[in-house]
């Protein structure tokens, strides 16, 4: 009946207080004087506090053991427990979680007094050191372990026992205050950082006391003169973040070669004392590890680090801190090694080495425990520490705020400095605290070194640990389940952020920048900028100063980004223009919260942005007004693989929501700007083919036309009483009709209408005319974007003709007055917007005009050739070079298009494949029909494609349309980059390629078009 709910019928049971073995618990409570037949009575606060401990049965059992050990003093402790809430919390906190501290209290019952409210435990390092020195009879001034320092009276086993007992009492002070708020929630909890610092200081005090005993041992052995020896703490002790049970990593430094033999004896003796008295001491982080000399001089250390040290050894030095022995020597050691730490990231493959080290550590964790390994497993403490240390060593070269040995202090500095997102830094701090707290609670149980989370199906162990961590519930299993859920959440969060930060591409780029180059405003920076290719280093420095001035977080992030960005821009055609553009974009987006965060976290965005800004003037102009496209630079499919039809549908849907014409037109322009920039970025980065660019640009133009037409029809109808008296179709002409628009192309169109809803033709034409006027007005409003010019000059009678006609009116005009050039213009006519049926009927109706039966007679062929010659001579701008003019030059766009169009007029009636508005498709159809040799078609297609690409590249580079291959060297280099040529290409080679390709095309034009 050990687990029955009540041992006496009707009497209260200890089960309600969480004790499992109720009969045993009742007996122990009665023995302590805390239970009677009516329950706990006045002792209820004591029993309630016991019930809130992580393991109430263990706590009560330990109380029973302590009562036996105290004999006559028990009544005094029992009485104090009833009155002193701090004593209750502290004593039950340790007894309910730690068998090791229960053993200590049973062996030293008087130590309960150090847990009372009146007790004043040592708070300072010197106080702890003094207590340990007093325990071994060492008194006097000076640093322990030095020639003038205190020397212990006790030696050997006696000294070890005295030190061990005193040190365990110091740990009891810390643990009792750490755990007190669990049984007594009214007591304040102690932050993890404070606990870790107290444990670290206790360990330093232990090292100093051990040195005093070691000096006594050496003097007893006949050594009269103590050598100068410094003890350098490494790892968690160096960072003041020790656990309850940790190895303490140290390095020993002697002052001179003559001190090494005796210094080695002193260090060895100290280590022999520390092990059994306090904790394991590990000197394996010294040069050459366990195979190396235990003690070296400062020069010996420096010589090794400069010549032989591996990357991980500099990482370990991040936490180096002199803690014992000769203070001046320790300070000199730290001062000497710090510069090596903060330049280590310049080593070749530094970032890869650190990452490889983390992977090797992780690979050594057995797969069956990797999920439960708090320290080394995925999402464990090492994930946080490695990420923080890597970021520190890369960015700490130029930012001294990051040079902290504490993981959490460094993490906060990284967040405040902008190197890590504030939210990410905060999440990592929370997770690190949680994992370290769990680690502390695991170790407290038996004061053994462990980092292993309990088995996930061990409900009892999980329940105890969950309550020790602070999860409060009505049952152990519930606390355990909450603990497991929280542990998995934190592990997942740590792993996600570790991979985000530890493998951030920007790290490699920053690490490759020399340390002196990170100090961007020094005099040497001007020479470096000139070496990078900046034509105006002074101007570049002004931009840098403007971006990095002040103490803001934004300036800190810019300070981290700019060294990398300057290098990247230095490899672009226009570094100065790119840096100026970057400054303008940064200033325009200064209040955009995600802008700098995106650049910091996504290395590919920085690389691509530098390439774009150093090549194009159009991109930064658009980017300032469409910054959201910047996000797409990190997502290649979203940037380069979006379906034009999907884009068009989205635009039409968005614009249709607006009832106000001006707002609707503004929305259309905004969406078009977004797409124009997206396409331009993908084009400049070489992610899309030229035909895809043209189709996408044409598609977005069509969507803008269609949405604006729809909105104008609705608005015009509303003004005229709600009636829509006409159907309207938009016929794309020229490059729009061929879906071959470039970045600076106008939209050549014609508008056709017909009466609807029983309206008269006159009313229909009037209504359609008003709609067209509004479309042109709305789209033609001034804008900083490339213009939305709707060109209707190809309509019958040109600029003198009506804006819109009915289908019959068009056919009547062409039948009576149409000229051959108008038939030629209709070859590229395609219904693009408005009433689909009307548009298609229009195209079918004009087929006999553009594809005449019997082709063209010789007179009309000569007329076309005459017009072409006239265009070549009269429309070529003054001063233009006909050899490199993409539109009207030899072998350029007009040459190729007129050649195809002549064949379409001659053979389109009999060759259905020629009935296309696409230039490339038409040339291929001519080849299939045997009208054009395949080699000739390939020459024409290659020249047309190159001229199209050059024309687009000029627009991208200059930010304004241009048909001439640039003459300025820098613009020509930028055009070459936009065309995909390597960075070091001779621009003469670009020109030669263009001349060669267009010359071949011109030869085909001479034979096929002119018949020569």
Core attributes:
nucleotide-binding; 1012 residues; [glutamine synthetase]-adenylyl-L-tyrosine phosphorylase activity; 44 helices; 5-stranded mixed beta sheet; mainly alpha; disordered N terminus; 10 strands
Q: What's the quick description here?
A:
The chain has 1012 residues and is mainly α. The chain is built from 44 helices and ten strands.
User: What is the distance, rounded to the nearest whole angstrom, between the alpha carbons of the first and last residues?
Assistant: 117 Å
From the coordinates shown, what is the CATH architecture of the domain at 627-850?
Answer: 2-Layer Sandwich
- The total strand number stands at 10
Structural class: mainly alpha
Radius of gyration: 42 Å
Largest sheet: 5 strands, mixed
Q: Give the CA-based shape.
A: elongated
Count of individual helical segments: 44
CATH fold-level name of the domain at 627-850: Beta Polymerase, domain 2
Domain Glutamate-ammonia ligase adenylyltransferase repeated: 153-334, 607-843
Region (Disordered): 1-22
Region (Adenylyl transferase): 514-1012
Family: Belongs to the GlnE family.
Strand-helix topology:
Elements: H1 22-32, H2 44-51, H3 56-70, H4 74-83, H5 85-95, H6 99-107, H7 125-135, H8 156-179, H9 192-220, E1 229-233, H10 235-238, E2 248-254, H11 260-277, E3 281-282, E4 295-297, H12 298-307, H13 311-317, E5 321-325, H14 327-341, H15 350-363, H16 381-395, H17 407-416, H18 422-444, H19 459-469, H20 476-502, H21 505-512, H22 515-518, H23 523-532, H24 537-548, H25 553-570, H26 575-588, H27 595-601, H28 603-613, H29 618-625, H30 636-640, H31 644-655, H32 661-684, H33 690-719, E6 726-732, H34 734-737, E7 747-755, H35 761-779, E8 790-791, E9 804-806, H36 807-817, H37 820-825, E10 830-834, H38 836-850, H39 858-874, H40 893-907, H41 919-928, H42 934-958, H43 969-978, H44 987-1008
Helix pairs in contact: 1-3, 3-5, 3-6, 5-8, 7-8, 7-9, 8-9, 8-11, 9-11, 12-14, 15-16, 16-17, 16-20, 17-18, 18-20, 19-20, 21-25, 23-24, 24-26, 25-27, 25-28, 26-28, 26-29, 27-28, 29-32, 31-32, 31-33, 32-33, 33-35, 36-38, 40-41, 41-42, 42-43, 42-44
